Every structure is written in structure tokens, then in C-alpha cells.
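MOLECULE: protein
FOLLOWS: sequence and fold
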Amino acid sequence: MPLIDSFGRKVNYLRLSITDRCNLRCSYCMPSDGVAKLHHQDILSYEELFQIARAAVALGVEKIRVTGGEPLVRKGVVDFLRRLATLPGLRELALTTNGILLEKMASELRQAGVSRLNISLDSLQPETFARITRLGDVQQVVRGIEAAEAASLPIKINMVVMRGVNDAEITDFAALTLQRAHAVRFIEYMPAVPNPQTASLAFPGAEILARIGEHFRFEPIGKDRLAGPAKNYRIAGALGTLGIITPISNHFCGDCNRIRVTSTGRARSCLFSNHELDLRPLLQAGDAAGLRQALRACISSKGDMHSVSWQESGALENFAMVAVGG
């Protein structure tokens, strides 16, 4: 029986965070002074994470995306992914990564059963990349992408577009699709970290498309039923595709098909929701039926749309994206 929320949306996608740790400090993901590290005992074990995944798939979830923090920094992640990939009924196992550790791990991930990678890459320029990530080396990510290509892993490259920071590279990123069969997705900057410059950093999706259109001719294309919120396009003659994700200027709440679980075991119906369900007591009690019921309750609690904008955060309590598994 499919999971249908109170607004008639089919929910078949779980974003599962396995760690709050990250080897970068991206400006839109966490405050400049970082976030307090959780203790080991506060993070769900792999067994507990697997119980959540199994319950979700039993309810009708067909796609799981493993996130963080940076999931590849957690020891044992490959074995965990291999186990997830065996879940009957799971059609797609994806992973989001910043690519820093990918060069050495891409082949293992493919062998473990990962079917797609999302790689966060916000600049191709070393200085800009280092400024956004506060300590990253873009060449490590480039080598990780090359390793993923060699392992025949399908790749989506995610660029968070920020005015005056990296928007001059929009057409450079679009051009990546000309010779490579990657999906390059442009994501609007989201006000998830306290920043007085939020409004000035905003770069709406319509403006991103207009910028691309100044250099390339492109057409809209469709997407499969397990796909995320991007509106997809292809430049004439390109091997890859473009995607525009507009959570603020033109939200896609009406088509939302996902729920999230943090690495501490809290289920969220929306990235911008303050309401969470704590799954840990059910996990500790071994209450499989209660766990499924809680996930259903999370889906039932999904609102019709969020109230976040670049000028007004609504009821959102600012949070570090790294802690939520954005």
C-alpha cells in the first residue's frame, strides 16, 4: 500500500543521515564557528539506522539517499551501504557526498550497490571553493569525480548558487554537461544558517535559467517517478542534463515525496519544519510496529508548504544544515 500524506502526495523517498561530522565547513551549511560535536552515543548505530531503513521500505519507500554531514567520514559506511542495498523493495540507493574522500572509495561504493552519487561542488575555482568550504581543495573533488566516472557511477553535481560568490560560474557548470553525461543541478541558496546577507546572496532559479540561456539553447525534459525536485533541461546536443531546484522562489512542496531522519534518530517531514519525532525510544525497545507507525505519523504531519523566504524565515528556527542532513 503506497504512503500517501494528507494532501494526496505519494511519499517514496527517505533521506537518511548517518553522521553530523564533516571534513568541510561550507558557509551555507554551518555557522563560521562550527557546530557542537555530538557524542558517539548520541548518533544512531548502523543497526538502528538499518532498522529505520527497513521499516521505511516495508511501508513503501523505494529510494533511500544516505547523507550527513559527510557520510564517507563515518567508519564502516561501505558495509552499511552494502547491507542497505539488499533490502527487498528498495529500487534506488543513492549517496550525497562532498567528494573529498571519493577518489579512494568510488569503486567500493559501486560494488556495495550504490546506484547514484550526488556530489556537492559549488565552484571550479580553487580560491572560491576554498572560501565557500573554508578549507577545501577543489582538486580532491575533481579527482573524486574522475574516480566515480571510472567506476561507472552515475553522477549528479550540485551547485548552490550565491550572488557575488559563485554566480559567475553558472555557465561553466552548465558547460560540464556538453561532453559528460552528468546531471548538473543548480540549487537556490537557502536561509538555513544565520546570515545578515541572506537576501543579497539570493539568486532565483528563473535568473539562473536566463543566465544559461544567454549562452546555450536548451529544452525541458521529463524525469522519472523517483526523481527529486529538480526541473530538468538539456542543452542542444549535450550528453548530460541541467536541473534547477527552487526551494524558495518557486517551491515544489506540492510534489514533495520525501521524509528525513537525522543521525540522532529524529524524523522530519520537511527540511524547514521545526517538528520532529524521536525514533530512539522505539529503536531501543525493539518496537518494529511502533517504528512503522511513527514513520507513518511523520508522513501524516507533512504540511502543504513551508513558509521560508529570503526575507522571512517564518517559524523556522535557524539550524545547521549539517545536523539535519539537508
Notes: The chain has a mean pLDDT of 90. The longest helix spans residues 46-59. The chain is about 30% helix and 20% strand. The domain at 13-324 is CATH 3.20.20.70 (TIM Barrel).
